[in-house]
Design a protein that fits this description.
With 230 residues, this protein is an alpha+beta fold. 23% of the residues lie in helices and 33% in strands.
Amino acid sequence: MIFFVLLFAAILIYFQQNQKEKYEGFDLIPERTEDIPLYKGLEADSPVYKIEGNHWSEVMKFYEEELPKNGWSLIMQQASSDSNEDGAGFTSSWEKKGTDWALSISGSYFINMDQTEVTFDRTVPIKAAKWVESEVPEVCINEQPDRSGDCFKMTDKKIISQIGEMINEAPEAGNQPLLYKEKSTIMFGALTITVYYDLDNGIYLVSDKGTKWMKPEKEFFELTRISKEY
């Protein structure tokens, strides 16, 4: 009887120590939350979650679908254009009403290990800086600045105001790599904003004030006319 008690105690201590090491250093543990699900197959292995194989795009899509069901709203998301290159992956930021921090989820695939690694973190909420400070009588929009210096002059005050509001509401993106190839410019008086975009993945706004990112909103493309698709 004493032997079995000692054996049980040893197994329990080993299990507790193993669990402690698996989760040591984690800022956020999805299994211990009610509103952040864990992608099936991900296993905790401090300081990341791991799964064999190339699953980063599936992980990204999983959270795109599941987090909004739990009240999370996407702030920013960036993904590699080549899904099979070494280190390919994504990074995303989410916010939720009543939560004083932002959720950051990143995932990458590493060829040598044939393994996808995912991290979950609490970060400081991303702020939206106001770039367009005042009304301007017109904006100048160049759909393809690399090919021509000509621009379309827009004078509709309502549309100009709507475009300005969308730019102001876009969150700061920091020093992120610009992953989208399509390029246009929007000039609000002395402020020139270079727009890098992908119709499916997102929009970068770059000026001397910094870099912002926004979702590929149909309304933005329709208002600015930067893409022939709209």
